[in-house]
Amino acid sequence: MAKIFFHPLTAICLIATFLVSCDDFLNQDPQTAISTEQVFADLNKVQAYLDGVYFNWKQTRVNRRTFFTMLGTDEIQQGEYQCVRESYSYYQGAFDRYDGGYDAWDNQYTAEIWNVRYPVVGLSTEALMHLREKEASATKDDSAKIKSLIAQASFYRACVLFELARYWGKVPVPNVANGNIVLSGRKPLSEVYGLIESDLKATEAYSPVKPDPSNVRIPTVWAAKAMLAKIYMYAQEESGFRDLSKAKGLLQEIIEKGGYDLITPYSKLWTGEDNTDLEVIYKLAFNNIWPDTNELQWYTGSRAVSMDRKCYMGGYDLALPTEYCYKDISAGGIWEQGDQRREESIRYNFNE
Predict the structure, then answer these.
(1) Residue 196: which pLDDT band, with cuts at 50, 70 and 90?
(2) CA–CA separation, 247 and 224 (whole Å)
């Protein structure tokens, strides 16, 4: 067997070399990523950061996770196969069954509702921390740009925090302390909604009146007003923020001054050929090229024809209309006689 020996003098030389080099470490910034500090040191880089936050928000509306919060309601249910197939569907099916599998401790899908949203709150808070610091000492030329960026970060945080507060009630609120983001325990609803309202008012104050055609991610004054109205309509009563009169005033202002209107006939909303922006106050924009797809059509399609990928009606039976949703009022459903939206919203004829 070959043996390797180190001469004592050689070992001493190696140690000496190492000790000398310790005072002269190579400091090299990463070549494939930049730090948050580097991003916010240059205002021209911040929009890309916020576009990333927007992309994270969009991920809450991709594939089956889009429908988790709608299942178990009066209008939407899963197909039977979804509820019984394989082990994962026991927990997914719990959204319709309301059984023990619905518990967040075991249900990974309940946890996912939270896990895909709260990072948006944290990333937005970090952006606001840096931008507020810059705003305090900004030049006149930079001030308008910083305010626009603050409006975006505030809007993203408010919208997602509102979703979480509606689902969980009291939720943690990120705070800034000594230049760091500190996560609190669950805060009272009055504090949570106070932050949401403050963010939306900042969005309203710093946003443009007209949408930017080059970047649909940037909210407008009207988007902020619409979300404020939604807060005042849907905030839990114990929060102290439910105020229908405030909501009515904001919505009336949007109708009278916002320049929006309903698309007629209603069927134009679904053709894919008509411009529906007249009716859109704000949108999470997807397209039909992966990875920027939302895959919603497949998750609402029929499993009976899902083996044929070319069949546009195929899918996973994940979000189907209940009987209450697709029947007329006379049959115990929701549709009034002659409502033109009924045939355009739900497929009844599967022979075509």
Answers:
(1) very high
(2) 12
* Residues in contact with 291: Cβ distance below 8 Å, sequence separation at least 6, in sequence order: none
Only one residue has tokens 């240059």, namely 42
Residues 6+ apart with CB under 8 A from 270: 344
Per-residue pLDDT tens for 263-299?
A: 999 999 888 788 888 999 999 989 888 888 999 988 9
pLDDT higher than 80, residue 158: yes
**Predicted pLDDT at 210:** 93
Residue whose C-alpha is closest to residue 212's, from 149, 266, 163: 149
* 25-64: burial string, b at 16+ Cβ within 10 Å, e else: eeeeeeeeeeeeeebbeeeeebbebbeebbebbbbbebeb
CA–CA distance, 153 with 140 (Å, rounded to integer) = 21
Burial degree of 268 (CB within 10 A; 0-12, 13-18, 19+):
middle
The phi and psi torsions of 97 (rounded to 5 degrees) equal -85, -20
State the average pLDDT for the chain: 87
Residue 106: both structure tokens together: 């075991």
The single-letter DSSP state of residue 65 is G
Distance CA 231, CA 3 (A): 76
Assess contact for 320 and 300: CB atoms under 8 A: yes
Q: Where are the alpha helices (DSSP H) in the chain?
A: 8-21, 36-41, 43-58, 80-84, 88-97, 108-115, 118-136, 140-168, 189-206, 221-234, 244-257, 296-299, 323-326, 341-345
Angle at CA of residue 232, ends 212 and 163, nearest 5°: 70
